[in-house]
Amino acid sequence: MKKSKFLLLAVTFLAVVSTAVAEKKNDVTRSLHTGKHRQEIIIPKVCGYNVYKADLHTHTIYSDGSVTAPWRLREAWFDGLDILAITDHMEYRRIERNLIKFMGAYIKEEYRHLAKGVNTNIQGENDKPDEHGILVDMNVGYEEALESNEQYGLLVVRGVEITRNQGHYNAIFTQDNNKIYDPDIRKAIKNAVDQGAFVFQNHPKRNPDTKTKMTPLAEEMYEKGYVKGTEIGNGHAFWGWLVPHCMNNGLAPISNSDGHASISERFYPYYNDGAYRNMTLILAKKCDEKSIKEALFAGRTIAYHSNKLVGKEEYLVDLFKNSVTIEHQCDTKKSTLVTLTNRCSFPYELKWGKNATAVVGAMGAIQISLPKGAESVEFTITNLITGGKKRAKVTLNFKRKPDNEYLRAEPNRWFPY
Ligand SMILES: [Zn+2]
Ligand SMILES: [Zn+2]
Q: Ligand 2 centre from 159 Cα, in Å?
């Protein structure tokens, strides 16, 4: 081969390789999610309502998150969500100092003394603000997300995290985040309530004295009716001890990412069993502000955390019944064989009979053996949580196929049940 031809080939080869590498690099952001497409999460109707998938607790660079608001939206779309709330910390905005430094040349001389940020960590200062109050515009993150939402068409929700040592509370569907702050957390929560916001408790604290109950502030806020929901799931944490309180008091069970860094980094490598990021599933007629707010105040939610679902029994039972069908296949010498088909994106962990267990996977089918001649089966679904130790129970009835001599032979038992 002539030297020049070889060189040309080599250059072409390198160009192809480097293009491929460049393309791969450019694609890293998307591949960190679920691929080049939005992941659709299929959930049947529950009690006649559509089920919308929401993350009601996320952070951006406007508090202590490491991503922008439009990025949060993009992630939510790829992750298959319908609703996203931007809820930056009001009293803890770690990144603000650097943002001001970056914008330094724009600041008038007379304001330079404020250029280190004001009240960027009220929580860290033992909840004591200085006389300036909060100077930044706490609506900017929401407005940025809304601007880029034209591309995605999700329901973007304005919100804020009231962040004190005494507890963290999310107010969503606020009218103006800049009119919520008050040095007294009770008044701040009330300000949000007066705006018509839905307020819920974030990553709840236990009462340091009793260790089993909530803090006195939380109890007071529930009693006054200001707080209508509680996070059962937040990031990797799951508060099983709060489920009875939530169910007994008609509060909405909620589960959110509380994403500060990239969601894919936080959730997907960790949940390698195929679970999704945390979601609050909202049972509503439509995916608009009015319907979603109405559903939240009515407590029509299911908290999803790592394939565990927490909610009222009637919702979880209906979810299961609308997801899973049962069909009689045949009888063997000793048993009746049925096929369970799951047309939902969540797996169900089943228990029946004496000690039999199986998982019917997301969008999958399994076959199980029942006592010969059975016409129904009662399942306890161990990942559908309706109370502290209570799990949803569902009886599925099925019609037996007429006897078929051919099928009476023992089938090939490839399945382990
Ligand atoms: Zn928090
Ligand atoms: Zn948070």
A: 11
Write out the DSSP string of 135-204: -S-TTHHHHHHHHHGGGT--EEEEEEEEEETTEEEEEES-S-GGG---SSHHHHHHHHHHTT-EEEE-SP
Domain count, the chain: 2
- Rounded Cα–Cα distance for residues 98 and 117 (Å): 9
Query: What tokens appear for 156 in the block?
Result: 């973007």
Q: Is residue 10 part of a domain?
A: no
For residue 167, the ligand closest to its alpha carbon is: 1
With bands split at pLDDT 50, 70 and 90, how would you rate the model's confidence at 357?
very high
Ligand nearest to the CA of 201: 1
Q: What's the CA-to-centroid distance between 308 and ligand 2, angstroms?
A: 21
Q: Given this model, what pLDDT does residue 24 score?
A: 39
Dist CA 367 CA 413 (whole Å) = 10
Is residue 116 in a domain?
yes
Contact between 231 and 204 (Cβ < 8 Å)? yes
Computed over every residue of the chain, the mean pLDDT equals 88
- Does residue 28 lie in a domain region? no
Parent domain of 107: 34-311
pLDDT in tens, 291-326: 999 999 999 999 999 999 999 999 999 999 999 999
Whole-model pTM above 0.70?
Answer: yes
Same domain (yes/no): 162, 300: yes
